[in-house]
Design a protein that fits this description.
Layout lengths: L2 E6 L4 H13 L3 E8 L3 H11 L3 E4 L5 H8 L5 E4 H10 L5 E4 L7 H9 L3 E4 L3 H16 L3 E4 L2 H10 L7 E8 L17 H4 L9 H9 L1 H13 L7 E5 L5 E7 L4 E5 L5 H9 L30 H12 L3 H17 L5 H14 L8 H21 L6
Parallel strand pairs: 1-2, 1-5, 2-3, 3-4, 5-6, 6-7, 8-9
Antiparallel strand pairs: 8-10, 10-11
This protein binds NADPH dihydro-nicotinamide-adenine-dinucleotide phosphate (NDP) and magnesium ion (MG).
NADPH dihydro-nicotinamide-adenine-dinucleotide phosphate (NDP) binds next to α1 and α9.
């Protein structure tokens, strides 16, 4: 029987790569469900090619248009955020690949964990916000959470060289983004266009901005903390501009195990689908002789304050990460819309964290409450203060 895969966010950068990966894997894997937020043109095209039984459109205003495109097909249309949850819960689904952007993916990821599905997680924000609850929900229901994020896929692969107790530390690599090496002074003048020009990875706009502020790496520290159940003080960041070593694990005996590959998301996507097997696929092959050298630098915690904040947030636990993530989502939206300066993103996040009273042992409802509060706080700060968000 072919494995039935639901791709949440099939119209995005990860979703589109996932479809290529699945197509190349052949008849052992089938796409049973796809989702988009509002790009129903592409969703309809994908539906004609991959013939899923279900398609979900999370922005309900677009459901009618989608029906117009594929009304003649034998496919069930699910609409609204609840449609995404229903998709994740479908009896017929074996693997849920979560590739939507932001905490908006949380209810669907949680539903998949509750149903004990195999979860291939690209959508890192729900893990940042509710990692502890998600991991325990999956464990309780016999599900498994497999990382798609390239660094976490690398750590997951390296971890197989020893036991959890034998791990000394995790070293997450980072390309450094478009502003690697910039001074705290010069970063004040960067533009939206520069922030969107990532030197290595071609990704959706939100994660591209997160890479420029290094919030992406900050999230990845918290993501690793939950995925690998490791204290945050045992997670380090190393700048590696070539993005060939995707991350490393140091064991107690001093042995360091790394995973290498071309910067190509097809490989971690595929591994999260075929695990525990490895099969031939479409990911680009690494030719080390063509790469003259691999370089490494220490991260700059002064210019990229998001990195420092990640450790504080991870130690604070509770609702802190929900605020950290939501303030960032709201601030990045403002930045992409041209409403604030680049450096204001992290200033807004710091403002929200300073103002928030962290609640320990928070439930999903309390996390969502903290999330809503931070988004509102950012909007008020940006739109009501005379100096915009300053
Ligand atoms: P994109 O912006 O390219 O795609 C996002 C997808 O989510 C689209 O299908 C989009 O639909 C859908 N979407 C947007 N808003 C909502 C919403 N409110 N509710 C439900 N679905 C929504 O993002 P990426 O593919 O780059 O990233 C997806 C996730 O994977 C992110 O969490 C990111 O951090 C993570 N990730 C991405 C990597 C990459 O290489 N791109 C690498 C590692 C992690 P529509 O097209 O209709 O807007
Ligand atoms: Mg990553």
């Amino acid at each position: 029987m072919a494995k039935q895969i639901a791709i949440l966010g099939s119209t995005g950068s990860i979703g589109r790569n996932a479809l290529r990966v699945i197509e190349a894997l052949g008849s052992d894997y089938e796409v049973i469900a796809l989702s988009a937020h509002s790009n129903v043109e592409l969703l309809a095209e994908q539906a004609r090619v991959y013939k899923p039984k279900f398609v979900a459109v999370t922005n309900p205003d677009y459901a009618g248009r989608l029906r117009g495109f594929i009304g003649d097909m034998d496919v069930e249309i699910l609409a609204g955020p609840e449609g995404l949850v229903e998709t994740a819960e479908l009896e017929e689904v074996d693997i849920v690949l979560t590739a939507v952007v932001g905490a908006a993916g949380l209810p669907a990821v949680f539903a998949a964990a509750r149903c004990g599905k195999q979860l291939a997680v690209a959508n890192k924000e729900p893990l940042v916000v509710a990692g502890e609850l998600l991991l325990s929900e999956a464990k309780k229901n016999g599900g498994v959470i497999l990382p798609v994020d390239s660094e976490h896929s690398a750590v997951f692969q390296a971890m197989q060289s020893g036991t959890r107790e034998e791990v000394n530390k995790i070293i997450l690599t980072a390309s450094g983004g478009p502003f690697r090496g910039i001074t705290a002074e010069d970063i004040r003048n960067v533009t939206l266009e520069q922030a969107l020009a990532h030197p290595v990875w071609n990704m959706g706009p939100k994660i591209t901005i997160d890479s420029a502020t290094m919030m992406n790496k900050a999230f990845e520290i918290i993501e690793a903390r939950w995925l690998f159940d490791i204290p945050v003080d045992k997670i380090e960041v190393l700048i590696h501009p070539e993005s060939i070593i995707h991350s490393l694990v140091e064991f107690v005996d001093g042995s360091v195990v790394a995973q290498l590959g071309e910067p190509d998301m097809c490989l971690p996507i595929q591994y999260a689908l075929t695990y525990p097997q490895r099969v031939a696929g479409i990911a680009k092959r690494l030719r080390l002789e063509q790469i003259s050298k691999l370089t490494f630098e220490k991260p700059d915690f002064e210019t990229f304050r998001a990195l420092r904040l990640a450790y504080e947030v991870a130690r604070a636990c509770g609702t802190a990460a929900a605020v950290f993530n939501a303030a960032n989502e709201a601030a990045v939206e403002e930045f992409l819309a041209g409403g604030i300066e680049f450096v204001t993103i992290v200033e807004l996040i710091e403002h929200c964290l300073n103002k928030h009273d962290v609640k320990a042992g928070a439930s999903i409802e309390e996390l969502l409450e903290a999330d809503a509060w931070a988004r509102k706080e950012v909007r008020v700060k940006v739109h009501k203060s005379p100096s915009k968000a300053g």
